[in-house]
């Protein structure tokens, strides 16, 4: 038998509002890190590769910790996990502000902040939504949560640049850390955990993962999600510096990131709405294909403020629109009981892609003085991911729960 959704301890609208605010704060903070590339590397004397490695480790640690964070949320409750995550996340930013060199920055920005992002991530928020929301409405509500994350990016990009310009990058990190502490009181609205139905086994962590990995469509979904992480992390961290290299101002770079967040509100809501009406695997294939086309067009047209904002708008529509569809497929395959953990495994693949995209961007720039290699690789990977998603079966995994009970 499949796990059933339990009645939330607080009214559903409050659960959704609190979860969306948490997602906005957590993802908005993460989306602003690219603005710190130039001031941090200049002040601490770091190379782009060293800074890129710190951000790459952050993405990798985030991905490794995500299945465990989801598993803890499934077992012990989402509210507790999110509250701890908010504290760790804020501590990581304070550590970044006081980092005197590359090694300390890697530990604070990479390891501590990466763990904090995982525990306070929208993946854990989605686990709470998956538990509280009926199956037929999950894709749409996942889209709302993803749109809230994008709204956070739209808010935090200019806010972070304003803090940096007015107070310097170190004080800016302290102020943003203070905003992260809002996650702690908000997390109380998402308290609760998924419950097993009578006769259903409470599976060990690795047992549930091994069963899920045996489902072929899930494997394809996990592999394809790697490309999403590659695109997002590279553009988010290196786009502002790339535009400065092309002769534009740092403010244009910050507003480009903000425009991505603004347009992804539309993209995420549209994705969540379409995901309840059309085959999600084909929607995912279309998103990755359109990303490849958008990157190719951006490289072919001379860079200006207009083309930068146009590219940001296009990528914004496609930015996190993969998330409600991917989360919806995971929920469809396996139900809500293990969603936090199994979506976390898919997200680990996403973050491995993020690691490669961020690190390779810095490495390519230091070696060649250009980001062109990574842009072209992004086109190839987009086309490959589009092909990978087409064979996915948009249906429940056969006998997943009964075989494990």
Automatic annotation (TrEMBL):
Q: Which GO terms describe its molecular function?
A: transmembrane transporter activity
Record's SUPFAM superfamilies?
MFS general substrate transporter
- Which UniProt keywords are listed? Membrane, Transmembrane, Transmembrane helix
Gene3D superfamilies on file: MFS general substrate transporter like domains
**Entry annotated with the keyword Transmembrane helix:** yes
Domain of life, per lineage: Bacteria
What range(s) does the Major facilitator superfamily (MFS) profile domain occupy?
12-396
Q: Does the keyword Membrane apply?
A: yes
Please give the start and end residues of each transmembrane region: 12-31, 51-69, 81-99, 105-128, 140-160, 166-186, 220-243, 255-275, 282-303, 309-334, 341-361, 373-392
Note the InterPro entries from the entry.
MFS (IPR011701), MFS_dom (IPR020846), MFS_trans_sf (IPR036259), Proton-linked_MCT (IPR050327)
User: What is the official name of this protein in its record?
Assistant: MFS transporter
The organism named in the record is Devosia oryzisoli
